Amino acid sequence: MTPRSAATRLLARAGSSKHASASVLARAASTSSSTPSASSSSSSSSSWEPALPTGASPAYDAALSFLSEHQNSTLSKLRRLQSKVDSSNPESNPELLRRIDQLEVDAYANDPAVRRVFRETGGKGQMDKTIYRWLGEQKWKKEGGLDLLMQRVLQMNVVPDLLPEIPPTAPLALSLHGSYVEPGSVQKPSIFQNPPTLKSQIFHHPSYPSASNPNPEALHTLLVIDPDSPSHETHSFSQRLHYLKTDIPLSVTSGDVNLADSSVGSEVLRWEPPAPEQGTPKHRYVFLLFRQYSSIPSTSASAPASRENFDLRGYLSERGLTASHLVGINMFRSAWSAEEDQFINSVFVEHRGVQDGAPVFGKVPKEVKYGYPMSAKRQRIEEAREEAWERAVTELKGLAEDVGGIVQDVPGSEGKVRV
C-alpha cells in the first residue's frame, strides 16, 4: 500500500472515529495499569481537549484516531506481558521486565494529554509513572543537561583525577537559596558557609515494585571532595574530604528531597566550607552520589581517619564499589581573593583548628600547574641552576664574613660601617 492510499484510508476512517478519538486518548492517559505490581503511567489530566474542534481538520482527526488505535493495541500487548510476570520472583526474567517498560513508554509517549502535563509540570508529582520518568530522562539527556555536565567534568579533569570514568545515570542538582548552580562555575567560598541544596531524580526503580511497595528505595552515599588541596609533603595536590553522608534512601519519587538535610541519611562528616588557599589555582569541589548495595560491610559508615589525603578509589574499594555505581555528579570551582580572605581564614581556624589561619603558597611550578613532568634535559638544567645558585649564595656569605673581618681590623671604623 502506498503512503498516499494509507493516508486516504486514515482520512476515511476519521469520519467514523473522530468523535471518540479525543475521549479515548484522555481516558487511556488517566487509566492505571490493571496489574498491581506494574508502575502506572496514568495522567492526572483527564480534561485534555483537542487543539482543533472535531471536523475542522480531517488530517488532525485522522492523527488522533491513529494515536488512539496504536495506544489501545500497545496496551493490549502490555497486559498480556504483565500476566506472564512471576509474582513470586518478578526479577527472574529481566528481559520480560524490560519489554514491559518499553511497551508502557510506547503506549503513552505520544499521548497529547501526557505530553501536556509534562510540559506544564516537568513531571513533578508524577515520577511514580514510567512515562514521566522516561520523558524526564530524555529531556535531561537531549536538552543539554547531561552534555554540559559531562563537558565540564571531563574538561576539568575530574576524570582521571578522581575516577577512571564518569557514567552518571541521574542528575544531581545544586542550588543556593533557590538559584541554580551551573556545573563547573566559579563561586565565592563564603556563599557555601552551609551546604547547598542537593536534589537527585533517579529514573529507574532500584528493584522491582510490588503492590505493597510500589516505589522501592535504595541507599546511597554522598561525598564532596576537593582534589586540589595542596600537600606540603609531596609539593603537589591531594584530595580533601569536605562532606560524607551515607544511607540516604532514594526512590523515583524522591526528586524533591534535599540530600544535605540533616534528617536525611547518616551524616558521617559534617560540612566543611571551601577554603582555597592564597597562591593555589582554582579548586574543584566535586559532589558524588553512589548507590550502596547490601554487600557493603557494616563498617562503611565509620568516618575516615582524616579529611586530608583522602583516597576516593581506596574508600570505594573497601566498600565494594566502583565508578560504575555512580548515580550522580556535579561540581563548582572556587579561588582565593582578597575579598574572601577573612572568610577563608575563619574556616581554617574554626573548622581545621589552624589558629594562624590559612597558609600562603608561592607560585605553582609549571609541571604541577599543567600536570606534566619536566623532561630529563629540563630537569638537569633546573638542578644545575639550583646548584649554581647555592654556590653563589655560599660564596657571597664567605665574602661578607671576610669583609666584616677586615673592617673590624681598621682603626676607628667602629660605628661607620655596617656589614
Give the strand tally: 8
Can you write the helix and strand succession as a string? HHHHHHHEEEEEEEHEHHH
**CATH topology descriptor of the largest domain:** Phosphatidylethanolamine-binding Protein
Biggest sheet, spatial arrangement of strands: 6-5-4-7-8
C-alpha Rg, in Å? 32 Å
Number of domain modules: 3
Q: Which structural class should the secondary elements be placed in? A: alpha+beta
Strand content: 5-15%
CATH architecture descriptor of the largest domain: Alpha-Beta Complex
**How would you state the average pLDDT, rounded?**
84
Q: What would you call the shape?
A: elongated
Q: What is the CATH superfamily label of the largest domain?
A: PEBP-like
Poorly predicted tracts of residues? 2-46, 415-419
Q: Can you count the helices?
A: 11
Biggest pleated-sheet summary: 5 strands, antiparallel
Describe this entry's structure for a reader.
- This protein folds into 3 domains: 138 residues, no CATH class; 225 residues, Phosphatidylethanolamine-binding Protein, CATH 3.90.280; 33 residues.
- Helix 1 crosses helix 2 and helix 2 packs antiparallel against helix 3.
- Strands 6-5-4-7-8 form a 5-stranded antiparallel sheet, with no helix packed on it. The protein has a 3-stranded antiparallel sheet with strand order 2-1-3, with no helix packed on it.
- With 419 residues, it is an alpha+beta fold.
- The N terminus and C terminus are likely disordered.
- The protein contains 11 helices and 8 strands.
- The protein starts with a helix and ends in a 10-residue tail after the last helix.
